[in-house]
Amino acid sequence: MLAHSQQSRTDQREAVMLNARVVDSRGSRGARISDVSIRGLRGSMAQPPERGEFITVHFDSCELAGQVRWVDGRRFGVRLRERVDARLLTGGGNARRQAGKKLDPVRIEEDTSMKGVIITYSVLGLTALSTAYLIVTYVIF
Length: 141
Hints:
Blueprint (H helix, E strand, L loop, with lengths): L13 E11 L2 E10 L3 E5 L9 E5 L4 E10 L2 E6 L5 H5 L4 H4 L15 H27 L1
Antiparallel strand pairs: 1-2, 1-4, 2-3, 3-6, 4-5, 5-6
């Protein structure tokens, strides 16, 4: 597995300098958030939470929950439970109109229609049949 600095990043990241409170199994402590994206954030603190731990990050305007994915010295990375609009958190976009309002996470609805379910299982069925055919043809005979 690649180190956190070598992994490809598909989400646009915003370099920031935000103060926050991190709540983990050891209590609530101050942290400095230096990088925010729609799916995660990077921060630093004197005693960062453990890798794999579920935490809550409290900002003045909102709170975000997530899981610590990596720890490197004082720095740590969090994969957020729900997607957020990083521009609102960092003061970009229409943040002036949103000042004082609690930020809501961006919820992305998945396609759970019957048509989508049928298509998904059809593709899985065809894949299973193709795999079985290849095993019988090339491995057994």
